[in-house]
């Protein structure tokens, strides 16, 4: 059954248990079985003959991918593989595997198929990325040379062995085990419905990411200035939805209807895929070197220092108090979820500003940043990146900036945990507000002046920490660890305060807080 026709629970089970069939530009598609014979992607004149395509047209009930490869098998002829179908619907896919004695003939057939499928010429695409989307024709998903982390990361059976052979401090080794596992990345892509096992969504090229970002930005600008309404406006949203889900192939595409959906399922998904791609390049293929301490090797590649905080230290107790005062239970259906702190790490990153650099800046606070576990490796390796776009919803309201909060409750929303994996991470960063602070409670019409002036914007929420309970930490850094109380801004669209700066040099990651979400007042069975 195609995944978009299954109930979400069945789709999730299939997705998480599915094996990735194509890991990157040099990956031989698993269903060919040619990799078992030593098959490799055919390369000639700098071109790898491995193409992946996508097409989404919900009006015509079309949501398909297409794979084309030329595979060279040792002591054998060239093989041409072609497959077209829907995710999860292999029995109805159009598929063929042909052996060619004539290399030129195989290449010509590959080029002919490319032009038939896309309506574009092959060489201008491969050499210069020149391409024009044609109606009801496929669009190429440009994949990079590397290994998608859903294939290259450690599988469940390898995690214990890797940790046992790791020379890092045990708590750090356990943290690296989480970052280097396939699991957190599989879950993230499954939750965003970008989980097709046939497509290496964790190994897209920078060219493809830039195209996605351009299409998103163009649409946001268009819809903000749009005067049409009714069916004409719906057609604009529908057209973008087809374009977006052709670029970011989804197992469950839909028509975007509003800014919140755009934030949750386009902007946030784009940022998550971008971060997972960095993780894929950093992690590489770990399956073959478990006994050689791969966790220590990847720790060195990240290029930062991570060390556990002593639970009796003043900093640990300060952070524990900050969590307790500014967290509020999350309610899902009729169940409330509390939070407990499992461990806290001190972090020194090489990318981005150091603590010593930020502590010299004015108006500093220790603030919360929310993140998926799947995005953490990129944050540690490359520092914080600004939001990808400006939208009139929380998280994107003040434009392309780095957003933090003075409420752990706000950061916890981004943890994306579930009953079967309740662990997550919150980030604490030293955040300089700079000399000029602009207070707003509604989205500005245009965020560009704020971005250009590089001011700090404080978005005023309906709740705020009690200022009488703030403490001074060190180096004139304030910790807004007061109990959450109603603010004077009950008409604000923000529940909690948001702080946004546009210069990455004003924010330095300081602590990683490992947390566990727990069902409140849950009674455990004695056998459990």
TrEMBL record:
Its main location: nucleus. GO terms for cellular component: nucleolus. InterPro entries: ARTD/PARP (IPR050800), Poly(ADP-ribose)pol_cat_dom (IPR012317), Poly(ADP-ribose)pol_reg_dom (IPR004102), Poly(ADP-ribose)pol_reg_dom_sf (IPR036616), WGR_dom_sf (IPR036930), WGR_domain (IPR008893). It is found in: Nucleus. Signal peptide: none annotated. Residues 38-138 form the WGR domain. It comes from the Eukaryota. Its EC number is 2.4.2.-. GO terms for biological process: double-strand break repair; protein poly-ADP-ribosylation. It catalyses: L-glutamyl-[protein] + NAD(+) = 5-O-(ADP-D-ribosyl)-L-glutamyl-[protein] + nicotinamide; L-aspartyl-[protein] + NAD(+) = 4-O-(ADP-D-ribosyl)-L-aspartyl-[protein] + nicotinamide. One of its GO terms (molecular function) is NAD+ poly-ADP-ribosyltransferase activity. Residues 165-284 form the PARP alpha-helical domain. Residues 293-524 form the PARP catalytic domain. Keywords: ADP-ribosylation, Glycosyltransferase, Metal-binding, NAD, Nucleotidyltransferase, Nucleus, Transferase, Zinc, Zinc-finger. It is an enzyme of class 2 (transferase). Belongs to the ARTD/PARP family. PANTHER family: DNA LIGASE (PTHR10459), PROTEIN ADP-RIBOSYLTRANSFERASE PARP3 (PTHR10459:SF106). Involved in the base excision repair (BER) pathway, by catalyzing the poly(ADP-ribosyl)ation of a limited number of acceptor proteins involved in chromatin architecture and in DNA metabolism. This modification follows DNA damages and appears as an obligatory step in a detection/signaling pathway leading to the reparation of DNA strand breaks. This is Poly [ADP-ribose] polymerase. It comes from Gossypium harknessii.
């Amino acid at each position: 059954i195609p995944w978009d026709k299954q109930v979400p629970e069945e789709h999730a089970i299939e997705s998480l248990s599915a094996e990735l069939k194509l890991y990157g530009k040099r990956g031989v598609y698993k269903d060919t079985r040619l990799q078992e014979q030593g098959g490799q992607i055919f390369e000639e004149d700098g071109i790898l003959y491995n193409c992946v395509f996508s097409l989404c047209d919900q009006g015509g009930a079309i949501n398909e991918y297409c794979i084309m490869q030329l595979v060279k098998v040792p002591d054998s002829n060239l093989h041409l593989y072609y497959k077209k179908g829907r995710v999860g619907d292999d029995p109805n896919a159009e598929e063929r595997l042909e052996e060619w004695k004539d290399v030129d003939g195989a290449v010509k057939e590959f080029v002919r198929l490319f032009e038939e499928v896309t309506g574009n010429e092959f060489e201008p695409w491969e050499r210069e990325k020149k391409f024009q989307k044609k109606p009801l024709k496929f669009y190429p998903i440009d994949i990079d040379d590397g290994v998608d982390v859903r294939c290259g990361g450690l599988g469940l059976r390898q995690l214990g062995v890797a940790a046992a052979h790791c020379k890092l401090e045990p708590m750090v080794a356990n943290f690296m085990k989480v970052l280097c596992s396939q699991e957190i990345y599989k879950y993230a892509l499954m939750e965003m419905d970008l989980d097709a096992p046939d497509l290496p969504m964790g190994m897209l090229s920078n060219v493809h990411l830039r195209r996605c970002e351009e299409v998103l930005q163009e649409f946001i600008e268009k819809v903000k200035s749009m005067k049409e309404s009714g069916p004409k406006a719906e057609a604009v949203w529908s057209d973008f939805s087809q374009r977006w889900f052709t670029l970011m192939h989804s197992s469950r595409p839909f028509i975007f209807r509003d800014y919140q959906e755009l934030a949750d399922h386009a902007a946030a998904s784009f940022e998550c895929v971008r971060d997972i791609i960095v993780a894929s390049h950093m992690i590489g293929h770990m399956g073959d070197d478990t006994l050689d301490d791969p966790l220590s090797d990847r720790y060195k590649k990240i290029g930062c220092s991570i060390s556990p905080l002593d639970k009796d230290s003043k900093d640990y107790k300060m952070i524990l108090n900050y969590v307790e005062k500014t967290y509020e239970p999350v309610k899902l259906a009729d169940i409330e979820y509390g939070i407990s702190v499992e461990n806290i790490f001190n972090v020194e990153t090489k990318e981005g500003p150091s603590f010593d650099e930020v502590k010299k800046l004015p108006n500093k606070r220790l603030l919360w940043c929310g993140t998926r576990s799947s995005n953490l490796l990129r944050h540690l390796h490359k520092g914080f990146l600004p939001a990808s776009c400006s939208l009139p919803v929380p998280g994107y309201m003040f434009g392309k900036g780095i957003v933090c909060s003075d409420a752990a409750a706000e950061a916890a929303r981004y943890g994306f945990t579930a009953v079967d994996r309740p662990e997550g991470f919150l980030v604490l960063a030293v955040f300089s507000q700079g000399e000029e602070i602009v207070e707003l409670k509604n989205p500005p019409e245009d965020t560009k002046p704020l971005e250009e002036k590089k001011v700090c914007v404080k978005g005023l929420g309906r709740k705020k920490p009690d200022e009488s309970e703030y403490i001074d930490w060190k180096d004139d850094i304030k910790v807004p660890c007061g109990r959450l109380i109603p603010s004077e801004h009950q008409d604000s669209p923000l529940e909690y305060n948001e702080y946004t700066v546009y210069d990455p040099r004003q924010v330095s990651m300081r602590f990683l807080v490992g947390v566990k979400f727990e069902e409140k007042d849950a009674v455990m069975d004695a056998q459990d």
